[in-house]
Specification:
The protein is α+β, with helices and mostly antiparallel strands and 690 residues long. It folds into 5 domains: 268 residues, P-loop containing nucleotide triphosphate hydrolases (Rossmann fold, 3-Layer(aba) Sandwich); 100 residues, Translation factors (Elongation Factor Tu (Ef-tu), domain 3); 74 residues, Alpha-Beta Plaits; 118 residues, Ribosomal Protein S5, domain 2, CATH 3.30.230.10; 77 residues, 2-Layer Sandwich (Alpha-Beta Plaits), CATH 3.30.70.240. Helices cover 26% and strands 32% of the residues. It contains 16 helices and 36 strands. The strands form 9 sheets. A 7-stranded mixed β-sheet has the order 2-3-1-4-5-11-6, sandwiched between helices. A 6-stranded antiparallel β-sheet has the order 20-19-22-15-14-23. A hairpin with a 2-residue loop joins β2 and β3. The radius of gyration is 28 Å and the shape is globular. 46% of the residues are buried. The N terminus is likely disordered.
Length: 690
């Protein structure tokens, strides 16, 4: 990442005036355009960057500009009303869900952007579930209300129906005008100037105010839920004092129970400034969020309260390679960090990484500015950390702890790749290593049969972008094979095995010997893996120590990592370790680990395994005239149609289908709909493929 022109230093306000938020949505809902408008109105940008022109400030990667979508989360900051807003613009395509997941993990609030024509879309649901998991307070911006078919009321209804949210409108669109009604203050807000940069507030005309009466009543009732003193005013039909109503609404937002909604069109430059006001008025400052809970060595828990003077606690949520150098994004939850500080990162198994922070940076998309100190509550960029990975906790070496890790999902699609020439082999491996450090949802493995390297990811677009980056960023162009769909295995029947591990002693070394009896049985789809580890220990009176128990579990889990049919991970089964036979000093942890692993592998061979493939949730948006052709094509792909919603001009199909039948579906759908259809999909489960 080039340093570029120096960033203007932004005065650091008190923490109460900080907001750390993300902007998230389904792909093409307009969140990057919204981010661009926020930066423009805040005075950070002096021109409007448009996504469709490849000129968006936040989409700075060549691949983002070429595809017109956000691929990697970008961090920036904007001043507004004496507050500093740190903003993270997240991807909308489902293939880049990890980027959204690890970003929401470190935020204090979020803005959900909704397409005013389509309402809640598939990735909107995914983002909503992630928001709920991290209990993030949120606002909603209903975008694209300038388009034919847009419906603010229907969009809010889709929030209730599909997300079970409690939306409450704070602004309303006005038909045919670049204006919104401010329901809280009784004003009409017009967006004047060449780019809507001059919002003009005036009393709302009586006819428009009367039309807004049902919305005003809903807003009043929502506020009264959080302030009983407002209830009498609502029942009397009186307007609420704006400040008192804001205070009440803020309680509901911080509790995660209320979703204030704002109307507008980011592309047409209207409706954005009221949303920016709401970010300041309704979303929490860093100290207003519940403190994260960390695990201490020994198993005790500790609440990490925001305190600049406390021992350091920060989460590394993203690794990024810029200009060939390794950088780490981190959110600081407690303490203060300076260049030269020594940090520790505890790892599973007792390992503790210890490194020095060389430099600190404030970040604005692709630009950076060196800073001398970072404090609790901030997101900063760190240089000099060579081994820190996504999800590591950075802490004071004298006060070790672990924050909740970031969940990394398993990839579902792989491509075989090999260097274009022998001379390029080492460069390819080095480039892949850097890509995998940046994106843990990419996985590199080796096919046990062919010896080919396989790069696995979350979908076709995810892998396509990875290969584009290999070429553009690292100047390597590997040859690729056909896509391979990830598989799983599951037992076809119950099985039981008594196994004695007694290999010949090698080179006069100590003898190893251990006996294991275990049983396996299949479980329903989606049940996962259950290990029952309470065996009878023989001879009578013998006991397993903790090291031996850990070795037995490790052996079982190793066997489950590759089943007998295709070497795919095994799931949806119960493994019961019934008995363990010990032979004194010969039953070392290594012997028990090997006995458990081989016993389980043989038991699975005896029971037989069935192959499972990824079943995808699919949502297709098409013009109504092509509905029959698209439904017929889905049936031919062994798709199961769950729901069809038809309107005057468009239709939406919700279905599930095997991933291997959906390879190349984007091209086929474009052909069926003359380029007018679009779809999104995400993993539902692994199941037997018809």
């Amino acid at each position: 990442m080039a340093v570029g022109r120096p960033l203007a230093p932004m005065p650091k306000p008190p923490l109460a005036r900080d907001r750390v938020i993300g902007i998230a949505a389904h792909v093409d809902a307009g969140k990057t355009t919204l981010s661009e408008r926020i930066l423009f109105y805040a005075g950070v940008s002096h021109r409007l960057g448009e996504v469709h022109d490849g000129a968006a400030h936040m989409d700075y990667m060549a691949e983002e500009q070429a595809h017109g979508i956000t691929i990697t989360a970008a961090v920036t900051r904007a001043p507004w009303r004496d507050h500093r807003i740190q903003i993270v613009d997240t991807p909308g395509h489902v293939d880049f869900t990890l980027e959204v997941e690890r970003t929401l993990r470190v935020l204090d609030g979020c803005v959900l952007v909704l397409d005013g024509v389509h309402g809640v879309e598939p990735q909107t649901e995914t983002v909503w579930r992630q928001r709920e998991r991290f209990r993030l307070p949120g606002l909603c911006f209903v975008n694209k209300l300038d388009r034919v078919g847009a419906d603010f009321t229907a969009a809010l209804e889709s929030l209730r129906r599909r997300l079970h949210a409690d939306p409450v409108a704070l602004t309303l669109p006005v038909d045919g005008q670049a204006a919104v009604i401010d329901l809280l203050r009784g004003q009409l807000v017009r967006f004047a100037g060449d780019a809507g940069e001059d919002p003009v507030r005036e009393p709302c005309p009586p006819d428009l105010w009367a039309q807004a009466a049902p919305w005003r009543e809903s807003l009043g009732l929502a506020a009264a839920e959080y302030d009983a003193a407002l209830e009498d005013l609502v029942l009397a039909g009186e307007d609420l004092p704006p400040e008192a109503a804001l205070t009440a609404l803020r309680r509901g937002v911080l509790a995660g129970e209320l979703l204030p909604c704002f109307a507008g069109s980011a592309l047409r430059n209207w409706g954005v400034q009221p949303l920016m006001d709401a970010i300041v008025d309704l979303l929490p400052a860093p100290g207003e969020r519940p403190p994260p809970i960390a695990q201490r060595p020994g198993g005790s828990e500790e609440a990490v309260a925001l305190d600049p003077k406390g021992p350091l606690a920060a989460l590394a949520f993203k690794v990024k390679m810029w200009d060939g150098r390794r950088h780490v994004f981190a959110r600081i939850y407690r303490g203060t960090l300076r260049p030269g500080d020594r940090v520790a990162a505890p790892r599973p198994g007792g390992e503790v990484l210890r490194e020095h922070v060389a430099r600190l940076f404030d970040v604005d998309a692709q630009r950076r500015r060196r800073i001398d100190v970072a404090r609790a509550g901030e997101i900063v960029l760190l240089a000099g950390l060579r081994r820190i990975a996504t999800g590591d906790t950075l802490c004071d070496p004298d006060h070790l702890l672990n924050l909740e890790p970031i969940e990394i999902r398993e990839p579902v699609l792989a491509l075989a790749l090999e260097p274009a020439s022998e001379a390029e082999g080492q460069r390819l491996l080095e480039a892949l290593d850097k890509l995998l450090q940046e994106d843990p949802s990419l996985r590199l493995s080796e096919d046990p049969d062919s010896g080919q390297r396989l790069l696995a990811g979350m979908g076709e677009l995810h892998l396509a972008i990875a290969f584009e980056r290999l070429e553009h960023d690292y100047c390597v162009r590997p040859r690729t094979g056909e896509p391979r769909v990830a598989r799983r295995e599951t037992p076809a029947a119950q099985g039981r095995l008594d196994y004695l591990f007694e290999p010949p002693a090698a080179g006069g070394g100590p003898a190893l010997k251990a006996g294991v009896s275990l049983a396996v049985r299949p479980l329903p789809r989606g049940a996962g893996v259950r290990l029952r580890l309470d065996p009878e220990v023989r001879p009578a009176g013998a006991r397993l120590n903790e090291e031996q128990r850990v070795a037995l579990e490790q052996g079982l889990r190793f066997a489950l990592s590759g089943g007998p049919a295709e070497g795919a991970p095994v799931e949806d089964l119960e493994v019961a370790l019934e008995a363990v036979e010990l032979f004194g000093t010969a039953s070392t942890p290594a012997a028990l680990r090997a006995a458990a692993s081989r016993a389980l592998h043989q038991a699975l061979e005896q029971a037989g395994t069935r192959l499972l493939g990824p079943i995808m949730d699919l949502e297709v948006e098409i013009p109504s005239e092509y509905l029959g052709a698209v439904l017929g094509d889905l049936q031919a792909r062994h798709g199961l149609v769950l729901d069809t919603i038809t309107g005057a001009e468009s239709a939406r199909i919700r279905a599930e289908a095997p991933l291997d039948r959906l390879l190349g579906y984007a091209t086929e759908l474009r052909g069926l709909t003359q380029g007018r259809g679009q779809f999104s999909m995400q993993l539902n489960r692994f199941d037997r493929v018809r």
